[in-house]
Amino acid sequence: MSDVAARAGVSTATVSMVLNGVNSTRISPQTQQRVREAAEAVGYKPNSVARSLRTQQTRMVGLISDTIASTPFAGRMLAGANDVAREQGHLVVLVDTERDVEAERQALQALSGQQVDAIIYACMWHRVVEVPEGLPGDAVLLDCAPASGGRAAVVPDERAGGMAAVRELLAAGHRRIAFLDAEKRFDLVASRLRYEGYLEVLADAGIEPDPALHVRAEPVAGGGREAALRLLELPEQRRPTAMFCFNDRMAMGAYAAAHHCGLSIPGDLSVVGYDDQQLIAADLDPPLTTVALPHYEMGRWAMEVALGLLKGDPAVPHLMPCPIIRRASVGPPPAQFGD
Fold first, then answer.
1. How far apart are CA 232 and CA 5, in angstroms?
2. pLDDT at residue 20 tops 90
């Protein structure tokens, strides 16, 4: 800083004010420009360690995750968090623990030792978690909710998303709507909430749910194909004209089942997925109407709360809307089944 001051012909205090962005009417634009040019000429870089000691900020945010870094949704969630951090001049330090308790403990100790300004605890899918010991009280939970409450958290509004999917099919004229659900053994929060949304919309429409139209399978393409084939083997008057699938992978399996049975989508069968997963939803033939998981928006919200730009309510998780993405897999029911 002394070198910059000497080259620009000003005091070190003036250099400090200019380079730290302090607004002062005493420093003319010409002088400010001269200081910046001098700093560039001598290769001046602020000492981040010294600055953190003075400001009590390291400008770093720790993000601890389970297996998020290897999931198809991780990129959007991390992008949202990182964009906010970069806008605020912070660096994100990502630690992927692979759901190892000891790795989590070590990560928390390391981030605490680095005196990061904030911590975000993220999960690869929406679930309820036991907060790890040592997680600071002001840490923000991303795509998960604390079992005992008391923490700022953000999760997708799965129930409303399920309702949006079924309303889309009702609006097209369908009344026999199946739900291809994940098997109970996976114990997924999203499964329960999406099913609740499905039932609520049917009830609002005066439709008695048919237990035969709620089928469970492994939430992958093969499981979706097997579940859809079971439904398509029902007697004609009980067979669904539309399928709401737990995720896009199951919807991909439903496409395969329909093609196996010589049915067209959406001419003979309408399908709605969930997730808006890259390389699946928009690339199916026809492109899949689906409900998007708001990973980018959740990542932004978590970082904004972590940095104090927003206030999170520790009493209840923040529900992020899951919008319907309309493509070409929904149409009216076949003429013989129309109302």
1. 79
2. no
Strand-pairing partners, residue 138, are none
CATH code of residue 268: 3.40.50.2300
State how far the Cα of 110 lies from the Cα of 99, in Å rounded to an integer: 17
DSSP code for 205: T
Is 189 in contact with 128 (CB distance < 8 Å)?
yes
Answer yes or no: do 133 and 94 share one domain: yes
CB-based burial label for 147 (10 Å; 0-12, 13-18, 19+): exposed
CA distance 51 to 71: 36
What's the rounded Cα separation, in Å, for the pair 108 and 186? 28
- For CA atoms 61, 64, 65, 71, the dihedral sign is positive
Determine contact, residues 38/1, Cβ cutoff 8 Å.
no
> In which domain, by residue range, is 71 found?
55-155+295-320
pLDDT digits (tens, 9 = 90+) for 99-155: 899 999 999 999 988 899 999 999 988 999 999 999 999 999 999 999 998 999 999
Rounded to an integer, what distance in angstroms lies between the CA atom of residue 222 and that of residue 229? 11
Model pLDDT, residue 53: 43
